[in-house]
Amino acid sequence: MRNVILAIFMAVACFAFIIAGHLYWESKVAEAVKEAQERVRADAGSEQAAKQANPILAQIKTLPADVQAAIKRAVEEKRPIRLVIAGSESTPENGGWPELLKRALDDAYGKGTFHITVHEYNGLTTADADRQHIAADWANDEPDLVLLEPFLLNDNGVVMIDDTLAHIQSIIDRLKSAAPNAVVILQPPNPIYNATYYPKQVEALERFAKDNGYAYFDHWSAWPDHKSEELNQYVDPESDLPTAEGAKVWANALAKRFIAQ
To answer: Which one in 51, 79, 115, 190 has a CA-CA gap of 20 to 30 Å to 59?
Structure first.
């Protein structure tokens, strides 16, 4: 009888020990889960607070990752974001879309957040630009970002697209050699009315950017169709350069890329 009672007692004790252990580990797991949730909430709160404290970070969230990283580096170093805009006569230093883009960035980010330098090269082909080592001009500005409008319009009918792309790569390589932290953003020149071969050059530029990991800002979708005569209101059919209205279209399209809506 004594053995039976002892056995029952031991069984009850073991059962109680198992239950107590189970409850103990349940409480520890629950506690760990709660701590993890609190850490996640704290991290999210810290990130949100950082964005609120620095609205620049909230504005750049739709930009490509490498462009964001370059801007964040400038923010962390507490200095202006150095943006170089380079291109053909479609990218005039005064009175064109770069000036309008600068105003939009100043309005969105605060005046002086972006330090913008424009390099305009009249009449150059990509072959000319490559031979003249124009990337050295940009490297001297110690850019975070280089928004490059290659010379596709000037190359049209003069330089074959494969050669154009090879020259663009050479220009970028020279830039990266002198300014390794610079992030390149490619964009096409303006469209022109009823062109045949030129749109194919632009498509090739976009593929080139994608294949080589460069950011590409396509603003053509903001213009009237290149087969529509309406485009002549935005691009002068004599010079193939943007009119005042065309400059607005171009600048607004780029501003939408730089500024999160």
So the answer is: 190
Query: Residues near 254 by Cβ (< 8 Å), separated by ≥ 6?
Result: 97, 101, 147, 187, 217, 219
What is the homologous superfamily of the domain 64-258 according to CATH? SGNH hydrolase (3.40.50.1110)
Nearest to 214 by CA among 247, 244, 169, 179: 169
Helix/strand/coil (H/E/C) assignment for every residue in 91-128: CCCCCCHHHHHHHHHHHHHCCCCEEEEEEECCCCCHHH
Please report, in tens digits, the pLDDT of each residue of the chain (261 residues total).
555 455 454 544 444 445 645 555 466 646 755 665 666 454 544 444 444 447 898 899 999 999 999 999 999 999 999 999 999 999 999 999 999 999 999 999 999 999 999 999 999 999 999 999 999 999 999 999 999 999 999 999 999 999 999 999 999 999 999 999 999 999 999 999 999 999 999 999 999 999 999 999 999 999 999 999 999 999 999 999 999 999 999 999 999 999 987
Single-letter amino acid, residue 6:
L
Q: From CA 130, how far away is CA 134, in angstroms rounded?
A: 7
CA–CA gap between residue 138 and residue 157 (Å, rounded): 27
Q: Which tokens belong to 68? A: 């964001």
